[in-house]
Amino acid sequence: MDTHNQVAQLQANVNALTEKQRKFQRMLAEAETKRTKALSDKNLLDAVLQNALELKESSAIATAEITKANAQTQSLATDLKDLIDKLIYAAEMINKMGNTVLKLKARNPLLSNELVASVSSNSTDADKAVALTLTALDSAIKAQTTNTIAEPSLSLTKQQSAELYERLTGNNSSGSSKSLKAFIDGALSRANNNYVRLIKANAEISRQLAIATTALEKAKVSTDTLHTK
Amino acid sequence: MAPSHMNTYNDNLHAQVVSILSEQEQQVNEAITSLKKATLSLYHAQGSLVAANLQQAQAVKSYTTKGNALNEAMANSYVSANILASAIQSKTHVDESVSAAATAADNVQLAANAITKLASDVGSTSSIAQAVDFDSDLIKQAKECADLMSEVAHLAEAVSYDAMEASALTAEVPANTVEANATQTNDSFKTLLASLNEEFDTTKKLLETNADNLDKSRSADANEKGSFKNDYTSQNAAEEAYHLANEKLNLDLRVKDLSSSGFTVCFNGIKSPVECYYILLVKNSKKSTFTIADAQHLISHKGQYVEITPSKNDKNQSVSKAIQISDLRDADGDPMQLGEAYTVFILAVYADEYKQVLNSIDDFLSAPSAPFSLTYALQHPETASISIDEKTNTLAFSLTENADFKVSYRCMYLPCSAGEEDEPGFNFNLALAEQVQAGNYTVATVITQMLDNGKSLISGISRITESTTDNFGYPLIAGQKYLPVILSITADEEADAGQFRSSLTPFRSTQAFTFQPLQTEKH
User: Fold this and answer.
1) Computed from CA positions of residues B168, B173, B179, B184, in that sequence, does the dihedral angle turn out positive or negative?
2) Do A192 and B523 touch (CB under 8 A)?
3) Model confidence over B412-462: pLDDT tens digits?
4) How far apart are alpha carbons B512 and B415 in whole angstroms?
5) Residues of A in contact with B145 (CB under 8 A)
6) Kind and range of the H or E element at B280?
7) Nearest neighbour of B166 by CB, restricted to A5, A73, A101
8) Per residue in A5-46, pLDDT tens?
9) pLDDT class for B315, splitting at 50, 70, 90?
10) What is the C-alpha radius of gyration for chain B, rounded to an integer number of angstroms?
11) A97-129 pLDDT per residue, tens
């Protein structure tokens, strides 16, 4: 091959490879941007998953606790009802004794005034105790009502949170391949693979360009030598 | 008529024919050059179109994937927003419960205190009744009341404890934490969703840009196809014109069946009585200065002409003569060189009687033939020998070739068009393959095994790596079909490159393969 032609051919190779290198470096830069973005999405998703997991756990705990509190409040109302029944019976007995003492006093004024006063005070106090216990029963019923509303509300939160977490991670019936985690993990894996491939490609192209440049320089030198002869 | 007169007529005619043919040859060459340019432009336009199509296909895929991810994220974010609403609702209810339970506990405490006091007072009354000792029934009654109230007081104490317990349990329900977690989840979702939305928008814009590019590439391709067709027609017309002129004015002189060892010369005989035809070989660079005197001089040098005696009977005979490279030296006495451009001339020596009739001693010299050169045709691998190992993404092929030749095997991957199976979506041929830039092909590594007939068995391999592109320089795409083609081209730096004719594997009978990148190691 005539040496001028050969130099021109080798120069064309170097030019073509330089152009290819520029193109692949641009692609690498794009791949890096995409990878950074995919990584950032992955981090954002991890934050979502962490929060969703905490939500799933805290709502489960809250639901368990409201259930316990609810049971306790239910039994409180029952016990209070039992208490008030017994208290009313006792109050009636106290009042009955008060009446007995008053009748005895009417028949016999010598009956102890202290006993009359004590019995009368007992009746008044019994009325008060009954009234207070009725109020307590009323507020216990209110507490029972509010708890009865709060429990299913928390339970719904718990159920939705569990479903959200399962759906996010793909451990549900619609399958793991369609979960957001699968999408974002897939995007990151593709972006990583692409980035790694382009790193390798650029290394290869640099090597090819170095070889082509060396060949060109050698050919130039031998052309110059021919000319000086 | 004076002989000199006759000579002038013949000279004028000869000069005219030479000039016409030379002009038409020039036009053919210009048309070829123009067609080559148009072919290359069309190739580049088609390359842009192929790339635009592939990019659009990838953008559509990316758009679909990102769209699916965004849809899923949006569906999830609705759930997250619902959870937040129900967490806030739950917290309100729990707050009410906490307050109600605390009130209940307080009230139960008050009631229990009153009951305890009453029990104590009723106990006192019973003691007084006993001390007064007035009526045995009364003592009994007071005792019963005291016992009853003592029992009630015990019960009240227990209930009071239960109420405090209920209040404490309700207060412990972590509704605040649930609400905080739901808020965080929803907030972090919004950030993720914003990011996915932004990426989806970018993908959408890319899709639009690509669609624009695709439109532009399509119209550029259509334009180039138009000029290609024009140039193709012009070239055909120029060749036709040359052939016609050559046929009418220059004995239809043609050189064909070119090989590395020889060629065949064809021409139509002259009507006038010819004693002998001589085929003369002249370097193309010297054809314009080659005269009839040179021709007449040559035929006294053995080995520098090929002589043909016409048959006496057939006056319109057409002559076809196969010539071996060793049979004929050129007008300079040099042996024929591969890669050098030559023309042939026909010198017709008229029969003596005819010359006497015309009173002329002049013979007839044709105009030069179209230039030609002899070359070694390089071999290309048989398509059946081409294979792709999908485990290693390695292309392999084999062929036999003259053991002395230094040949480079350039492996190229032509993207198949989406519609047709195993067909590239663009024009491709040997000339275009030779124009494919370094970097857009890979040179195969070969193992040579000498055979005993002066040939060697060549096995070539070429690995498809991360930097491998298609023939247009676009990186190979996973899932895309490609046709592997191999260009055999001389790698002989010493010899004149014109000695060797490149060759290309017939890609239309080649099996396409679907590219899949090898799994990259984790970094």
Assistant:
1) positive
2) yes
3) 999 998 776 677 878 899 999 999 999 999 999 999 999 988 899 999 999
4) 9
5) 90, 93-94, 97, 122
6) strand B274-283
7) A73
8) 788 889 999 999 999 999 999 999 999 999 999 999 999 999
9) low
10) 51
11) 999 999 989 998 888 899 999 999 999 999 999
pTM value is 0.80
Q: Is B132 an 8 Å CB contact of chain A?
A: yes
What percent of chain B stands above pLDDT 90?
A: 76
* Same fold across B14-249 and B252-374: no
Please state, in angstroms and rounded to a whole number, the distance separating the CA atoms of residues A56 and A43: 20
Closest CA to A197 of B482, B516, B445, B58: B516
For residue B191, the distance in angstroms to the closest alpha carbon of chain A comes to 7
Distances (CA, A) of B66 to A47, B90, B212: 20, 35, 21
d(CA B220, CA B233): 20
Residue A140 has pLDDT above 50, yes or no: yes
The terminus-to-terminus CA distance of chain A in angstroms comes to 19
Q: What residues does each domain of chain B span?
A: 14-249, 252-374, 377-514
What pLDDT score does B6 carry? 47
Q: Does B223 touch chain A (CB under 8 A)?
A: no
SS3 content of chain B, % helix, strand, coil (to 5): 55, 20, 25
Nearest to B438 among A6, A17, A59 (CB): A17
Residue A116 CA, chain-centre distance (Å), reads 69
Testing the interface with A: which of B71, B109, B125 to mutate, by most A Cβ within 10 A? Answer: B125
- Give per-residue pLDDT as tens, B465-484: 999 999 999 999 999 999 99
| Fold type of domain B14-249 | Helix Hairpins (1.10.287)
Residue-level pLDDT at B1? 34
**Rounded to 5, what percent of chain A is helix, strand, coil?**
95, 0, 5
Strand B500-501 to B376-377 pairing? parallel
In DSSP terms, which residues pair with B513 in a beta bridge?
B482
CATH of B377-514, one of 3.30.70, 3.10.20, 2.40.50, 2.60.40: 2.60.40
Residues of chain A positioned with their CB less than 8 A from the CB of B124: 118
pLDDT band at B274 (very low <50, low <70, confident <90, very high): confident
What gap in Å lies between CA A16 and CA B54, rounded to an integer? 22
Strand order in the sheet with B318-324: B254-256, B262-268, B318-324
Residue among B511, B503, B499 at smallest CA distance from B381: B503
Q: What is the ipTM of this complex?
A: 0.87
Burial class (CB in 10 A: 0-12, 13-18, 19+), A38: buried
CATH 2.40.10.10 fits domain B252-374: no
**From CA B264, how far away is CA B348, in angstroms rounded?**
18
- DSSP-assigned beta bridge partners for residue B343: B282
What residues contact residue B501 under an 8 Å CB cut-off, 6+ apart? B375, B376, B377, B378
Range list of β-strands (E), B290-435: 306-308, 318-324, 342-350, 364-365, 376-377, 387-389, 394-402, 407-415
| Rounded-to-integer distance, Cα B246 and Cα B367, Å | 9
Cα–Cα nearest to B394, from B460, B461, B447: B461
Domains recognised in chain A with CATH numbers: 3-228 (1.10.287.2610)
Please, are residues B103 and A214 in contact by the beta-carbon 8 Å criterion?
A: no
- Measured CA to CA, the distance from residue B496 to residue A5 in angstroms comes to 10
